[in-house]
Design brief:
Helix content: 25-40%
Distance between the termini: 39 Å
Shape: globular
Number of helices: 11
Structural class: alpha/beta
Largest sheet: 7 strands, parallel
Strand order of the largest sheet: 3-2-1-4-5-7-11
CATH superfamily of one domain: NAD(P)-binding Rossmann-like Domain
Order of helices and strands: EHEEHEHHEEHEEHEEHHEEHEEHH
Strand content: 15-25%
Number of strands: 14
Radius of gyration: 19 Å
CATH architecture of one domain: 3-Layer(aba) Sandwich
């Protein structure tokens, strides 16, 4: 049950996922406090400032006194604040560990037992899966990047603390008020629109995908069905989108027929993840994604018509 009496704290609430989630929660009548460092100078919440249910705090999720104050009276916490992606974490190893892991452990320590935690994890924690075998929530976690490792360690803390749900998110795509054009689908569509071509490294590597609006919806779903879902991890992705990079290019070409891709014979992707994922557990709770890849590509084409060819919208 969610209404205006439901108070939610969202750290990183002005980010790629957070700005979409904050708008959705407010539209459902909840009161939302966003904590964000605004490190990228984003203005992604400006259109929400007229909503009396929104409180915005500029600060650091590692600040213990600030977190203690902000947690008071909240029914649920969504810790989205993170250094997202393998390249960014490799560039700032201290930040990766203190923000992605230690700040989440801080929430686990400070939150009252009855306060709910809904935490996003990357399903890159599965690392390199067995060929032809789906990764389920019971599969071993073998992160191959610092980013994956910090998120897996944070998830362990959240589930051990209890009264929590974790979502192991597939690779996100789609337009957001705080756009990210460095995500795989978003990047490939940007190149298809601007250059009509892309060079693909290790094009056979597979991963799963999920639209940013469906990510926001799964957090709402978790809040509304918390007691039935709590204390378990859930893979969140598209069942029909366990695709290689080459297969992704073919989806994009259905929308942009002039797009061509070339698979490089040498060179490698810094993000080595390669796996296929089962999303059966989250589907069994009644959640169903609304955004397929092709619909997301069409959305991105419109977004890039607005943004043009300047690309400041990346984490690295």
């Amino acid at each position: 049950m969610t209404d205006r009496k439901t108070e939610v704290l969202v750290t990183g609430g002005a980010g790629y996922i957070g700005s979409v989630l904050t708008e959705l929660l407010l539209s459902r009548g909840m009161r939302v406090t966003v904590l964000d460092s605004f490190r990228y100078g984003q203005n992604s919440l400006l259109n929400l400032c007229a909503d009396d249910g929104l409180t915005v705090v500029r600060g650091d999720c590692r600040d213990e006194e600030l977190m203690r104050r902000l947690l008071k009276g909240k029914h649920a916490v969504v810790p989205l604040a993170a250094l997202v992606g393998a390249p960014l974490c490799d560039r700032d190893k201290v930040g990766a560990e203190t923000i992605n892991r230690d700040a989440v452990r801080l929430i686990c320590r400070l939150a009252a037992p009855e306060q709910k935690i809904l935490f996003p994890v990357t399903n890159s924690g599965y690392g390199i899966g067995e060929k032809g075998k789906f990764c389920t929530e019971d599969s071993p976690l073998k992160p191959i990047s610092l980013y994956g490792r910090t998120k897996v360690e944070a998830e362990r803390a959240v589930l051990e603390r209890g009264n929590a749900i974790t979502f192991r998110l597939a690779t996100a795509f789609g337009a957001s008020p705080r756009m990210r054009m460095d995500l795989l689908v978003n990047d490939f569509v940007y190149r298809a629109v601007t250059d009509r071509a892309v060079v693909v490294f290790e094009g056979h590597f597979k991963r799963n995908y999920i639209h940013v609006r469906d990510i926001a919806r799964v957090f709402l779903h978790g809040l509304e069905n918390f007691d039935a879902m709590k204390n378990r991890p859930y893979n969140v992705g598209l069942e029909d989108a366990n695709l290689s990079k080459i297969e992704l290019c073919e989806v994009i070409r259905r929308v942009l027929p002039n797009f061509v891709h070339h698979e490089a014979a040498i060179g490698e992707d810094p993000d080595k993840r390669d796996y296929i994922v089962s999303n059966a557990r989250i589907l069994s709770t009644g959640f169903k994604p609304e955004w397929g890849l092709e619909r997301g590509v069409r959305e991105l084409v419109k977004a890039y018509a607005i943004l043009g060819q300047v690309n400041p919208y990346a984490n690295v």
